[in-house]
Amino acid sequence: MSFLDRIAECNVHDPAAYRTLTCAGHAVGAVRHRLAERLRDFPNVFAVTAETVHLSDAFKDADQRSQAVERVVRVLEADGIVRGRRDEAYPVLTSWGAEPLFRIERAAAPHFGIRSYGVHMTGYVRTPDGPQIWVARRAKTKPTYPGMLDNTVAGGQPVGLGLHDNMVKECWEEAGIPAELARKAVCVGAITYRMDAEDGLKPDVQFCFDLELPADFVPRNTDGEIDEFFRWSWQKTAEVVAGTREFKFNCNLVLIDFFVRHGLVDPGRADYLDIVAGMRR
Fold first, then answer.
1. Which of the ends of the chain has fewer CB neighbours closer than 10 A, N or C?
2. Domain of 161: which CATH number?
3. pTM for this entry
4. How many domains does one find in the chain?
5. So what's the pLDDT on residue 145?
6. CA distance 16 to 32
7. Is there a single domain that holds both residue 149 and residue 252?
């Protein structure tokens, strides 16, 4: 196995399995055929054809659309289709920075193929032998990917909170990193992927942050979502990424991007350009 295997796993997608979700003249998501047929039961909210699922034009603004979609999501939860409610609203955007067309419950976003945004931070300690990386293990009680390895800090990007403010919030909740230290995290780019998952399509964007941590700092979880932390050499981290599926799928891309940016991946290797290109699909 290799870095390219991890990248490929995040980009397994069959467009023929979906119908385009449209709203106000924009393509904003993708719905699997089976769910699309279920949405025919909500003709006041969705118009369903063989190719598209269209959110009704009767709703004139983001609030009306959000309320209508939320009513449908509640029914889908009762049916057991949407699971693991977070009570966290994700924006549905035509492009990053645009005004949301509507908002959707986080747990429902993949079912509708909504592009989700998040923040992922690699916390590291500088040493003579290269960076050592703080790796988290997700709590076994997490509704998604329980017990898997994770980045030092990671979280979804909700409505109404800036990227840096969200990073500071997540740093405290997930790793006990105080705000004055968390504000030193630097946004160093973003990784993108498009992946078919059990709960739908994930055409997502993760904004990547780096934070150099003091040698004597030890992260501690405060919100119950992380079971433990490990401080690993970059070499061990890279071996686990390349050779196993122990990390949550998108965390692999964040770490590979870290290795590339810090000069830890030899640019002379034959797959170097494929690695670089593969993290921004």
1. N
2. 3.90.79.10
3. 0.94
4. 2
5. 94
6. 9
7. yes
